[in-house]
Amino acid sequence: MIKQPIFNSLGDGILHLDAEYLSPGIASVYVLIENDECAIIETGTFHTVPHILDVLKANGLTEENVRYVIPTHVHLDHAGGVGQLMKICPNADLVVHPKGARHMISPEKLSTGVKAVYGEAAFEELYGELIPVDAARVVEAPDNFEVTLGERVLRFYDTPGHARHHFCVHDLKSNTIFSGDTFGIGYPQLETTSERFIFATTTPVQFDPDALRASIARLLSVKPAAFNLTHFGRIVATDAVVKQLHDSIDKFVAIAEQAESVTEDRVAHIDQQIRGYLLDCYQALGGTQSDEKLLEVITMDSKLNAQGLDVWLSLKAQK
Questions:
Q1: What is the pLDDT of residues 80-128, one digit of tens each?
Q2: What are phi and psi for residue 157, nearest 5 degrees?
Q3: What's the CATH number of domain 7-150, 3.50.50.60, 3.30.450.40, 1.10.357.10, 3.60.15.10?
């Protein structure tokens, strides 16, 4: 049986595709369609590319209809498929943050760093191959830069805090923002009886809490109708959702600072504290999934957050 791509329409010509990274419901790819052109925002990994092509085909499009490939930043769950997509989409430009462009043109340093963390075999399983992009096809998008897709305008906001090479994309037609990792992580499979469960991501190595708070405020100031998260799907920024997000930044920073004097297994200590905090938050929201299910879903994010906070503490100590 031929496997059908997992996607749904969000309206306004926006398709939401599951990148099938690690497991379903973890990472999103968005396809914006305007007349006979489309833009792909986030790419997932090398392994995601066939799913994207299936979605294009299911909507009467081919690789030649792709006008832009747009990762919000160059972490590989967002940009690992960029090179392969650019290779097979002859009319596409890559739109990328100025500080991330060099990593897409020459990805060797990026792949070497990730392989050092995960190892060669795990890198291949998770991310596949990183393919360089021709510099002549790279468009650097500084703050407030705009591109047009037909009559649709996409505006780019420089949003450091999670990473210095991060921008968010404001689709003026739908008045929604593709927020990458800036507006946090909210997995819809972690259902509650009240507000959507959401928390900040402090993944290594460029977490900056002050910059992240400022970036969130910047995004909220343009009053978007909704945020299109990479992890995962669409969310409306109610007051309660925004408070959760800010509270999580404050709590993660407090957990890290309380662990400054820990000399052994500091990452593991921080990770344990984060998991306890997120468990308490989820229960307070009336979480309907078991504690075991919550921990299964958030384990990788908790560990990555702990690693990022550990790096932040180390850099802070050097100042």
A1: 999 999 999 999 999 999 999 999 999 988 888 778 767 788 888 888 8
A2: -115, 125
A3: 3.60.15.10
